[in-house]
Structures are given as C-alpha cells and as structure tokens.
Amino acid sequence: AILINLVVLYYVSRTQQQMLKHKEPGKAVARRSSVSRVAGITVLIREFEDFENWVVGVVKSFMKVRPDQPIVVVADNLPYPPLGLPNKRTVQTILLKASPDQPHFVTRPEFYIKTEYTLLVPDGIQLDSTQQIERLLQEFEANKDKARMVAAPVQPSGMFQCLNLRVNLKEWSAVYSLSGGHLCDAIAGDAVVLLRTEDLFNLSQPMLRPLATSLFIQSSLHGWRVKTAESVVFSSYPRSLYMSAHNQWKSDNHVKARLAHLFKDFGVKRVVQADGKEQWYGCTKDTPRCFGTVHDDTPEYLYLNRWTPPCCLRALRETARYVIKTLESLDVRYWMEGGTLLGAARQQDIIAWDYDVDLGIYLEDVDKCELLRSLDSGSVVDENGYVWEKAVEGEFYRVQYSESNHLHVDLWPFYAREGIMTKNTWLDHKQDVEFPEHFLKPLVPMQFAGMTAYAPNNHRRFLELKFGEGVIENPEYPNPAKKKLVKTD
What we know:
- The protein is an alpha/beta fold.
- It has helices at 2-23, 25-35, 55-65, 130-143, 197-200, 211-221, 245-266, 300-303, 310-329, 338-347, 370-373, 459-467, and strands at 38-45, 71-75, 91-95, 115-121, 125-126, 149-155, 161-168, 173-178, 183-184, 186-188, 191-196, 226-228, 234-236, 270-272, 278-280, 334-336, 357-362, 380-381, 387-390, 397-400, 408-417, 420-422, 435-436, 443-448, 451-456.
- The strands form 4 sheets. Strands 1, 2, 3, 4, 5, 6, 9, 11, 12 and 13 form a 10-stranded mixed beta sheet that branches.
- A hairpin with a 2-residue loop joins β24 and β25 (451-456).
- The termini are far apart.
C-alpha cells in the first residue's frame, strides 16, 4: 500500500509540474529569450496591407537565398484574403489580437524570435544576395558604439534621407530636420532596418504602425541613433503596389488613420516635417479642447508632467488676438491680467502651462460693446464662430474659441472706487486682489502672443503686488500645493 501511495504521489507531483509549465508559457519563454538568443537574424514583416501586398514574394525571395531564414509576419488580425505563406516551420504568422480562448503570450512576437538581431523589412522588397545581410551586420558591428540601428535604402523608391528628430513629450511635439551626415535619429523613405531584438522589444509599443515612424519616435526618446548604410541597397519588385487608383486611395487613408492613432497614442499633437511643414493632431475649432474641467487650478496634463498642448495654445492665441482686436475697435479699455500679464513679462507669450487668457476691462466701457451688452439674454455666437457669454461663476464675461472648443478668454470688469480698482466677483486666487488705479493711467503697449496688447504701467510692481516679490524670475505652477514645478521642468 505504501509503495502504491508513493507511485501515486510521484505521478501527481509530475503532473502538477507539467501543468505549471503550461500555465505560464510566457514567463518560461521570456526567461529563455532573455538569456538564450542565438546568433543570427530574424526577418520581421509588419508593414503591409491585407487587400494588396507582396508579402509572399518577399518571403520567397529570402528563402531562395537563405533557405533556413527565420521569418515572422506580424498582423493585427488574421490577414484576409489569406496570405498563402509557404508551409515551413521557419515561417510564422503572429496575430497581435488574440482570441479570448488563447493565452496572452501568443500575441507577443518577442516570444517567437530567438535570434540576436531582427531585420525590419517593408513590403515589396527582394533579397538578391546573402551578402546584403552580411554587410548590414558588418556595418552594425563597426558602428555599435555610436548607433543602435543600421538602415539600408530600398531602390527605386526615390527617397532615403537621414533626419534629426527631437521629440518633446512635455510640449507634445515632434520636430524633424535634415541631417548632414550618416548618423541620425530617423529615416525618411523606405528602408530595411537592422537592430538587436532585445532593443526592439524594450520599446513601449514595438509593433505600432506606421512601423518606421513609431520606431524612430520611440528610439529617439531613448537617445538611440541610426547609421545609414547606403552602400547596401535592397531592390523592390518591378511592379508597384496598388496599381489601381482605388487601392492606392485605400492605402493612403489607412496610413493617414494610423498616423493619427499613433500620435494620439504617443501624445504628440504637433509635428514639424523636415521641410518645415506643420501637421496638427490635436483639437480644432470643431472639436472639444484637449483637456477637461480644471480642478484646483491644476489642469490634468500637469499631473502627466506635460504642459499645455500646442493646439490649445494656438487656439488661445487666436482667441486672444480676436478679442483684443474687437475691444480696441470699440475703444473698450482693457489690460492683461494675472497669469496672462505674467506670461507677457516673462516670454511675451502665454505661459507654457496656462489654460486661459485673462483681461481686465473698465466696467463703464461694457456698454460700448454690443456683444457684451446683449449677454443678459443669453450667450451669442458671433459671425466668426466665437461664443460670447456671461460666466456662470460670477459677474464677468467669457469668450470661447467655438461652441465645441471651450478654450477661452475671461474678461473681468473693474471699476474705480476712491482710486482703487475693484470688482464684484472675487475668486479664491492669490492674485485676485484690488489695486491702485494709477497702474492703468496710462496703459502701455507690450508684446504678447505675436501682437501688441495693453498692460498696466510698471508691470513688475503690478505683478509683485498680486503674486509676490520675484514672481517674474521664479516661475511656479498655479497651485503648488497640488503640483509643484520642479527645476528640471
């Protein structure tokens, strides 16, 4: 009986160990992959369209020259029509969106790639000689102290440019510029890219499309450089993809949508291309602003260690210029107030983390402006789409960028009482205090947001009265008790 029990315990224990092995395959593979990458290269094909592609031709060209070449094709969903890939163990298809009955690891390409290097290959190229790969490896080894990637051009695509790339997540921006050398941050045009597998899968989103744009944005944030290997040229198929106008249109729209999704995912709202052209991926006059209701004077983006999105700053500047021009045309006396004046004093612009514009006006001048005078009966949308309204928080006015986008300029009516400027609504802001009228006699011009606007005379004393001594030279977030500006910001 004892012997039987021992046999039973042995098999139960063995069965449990095997179940545990199968229960966490991702971890097991991850451990192997981190220590047992073998010498060699895996070809990874990610950038292709289901409806028309040369993926099978690309795979066969590599297999013809290198019969045992490991190849991984990565797609979001099962490609349809089916790709018809060669039925060979070295060729695998990985779907990033798993069925609910599958474990998580089946969607992770890094668990399938066992080689030290990965070669990112665009659709439609051909491998002509094994020497192309060998020379890329040589270039990589020769430059490994200064570059983490090597890129080779595809001919006759017509474009292969080495670019500098500055990604500033705090300012939600990516700025490209031409590089004069062979060491850069990004490549413009079709390219075959070689990098270490571990580097690729240490990126936050290694398979996000468009793959090259995504790769270089993430790698630039790590400070990685790419070395161009222009002597190693890959050829493309003689017939172009998307021979029909419809498929070309379809592909262009897919790329445009993927770019918008990529920049939204990465929090990039302004892109400056190498030719100086700007592309915007943030809010517009027809969409809501990029952030919600502000609590405790601290907008949500400050908690993300970011500043005001550039699209929001652009809308604030546009609204400020419009309101100021309107007030000036009607002889309504106004001046820059609070943080707006502080921004003008520091940098002649809106403070980088501010979320509205504040202007003081003389209460007695309100009747000069029909738009303000008529707001007792409700808000007004003017001929340019700006929304004029009475603020619900008290006796002041607000001009919004549009009905959809509530970025705004606040107009605060002040009146003189025994030489002191006061008003009827006070909010719980440090700078919300009365001040002598002599600061407004006279008002003086000051540069602000690309225009000339009026400000109190002796703006330094005016600001120090409201905020405290040294406020111009010592920037701080609006509510340091909630979020404090650190020196590295």
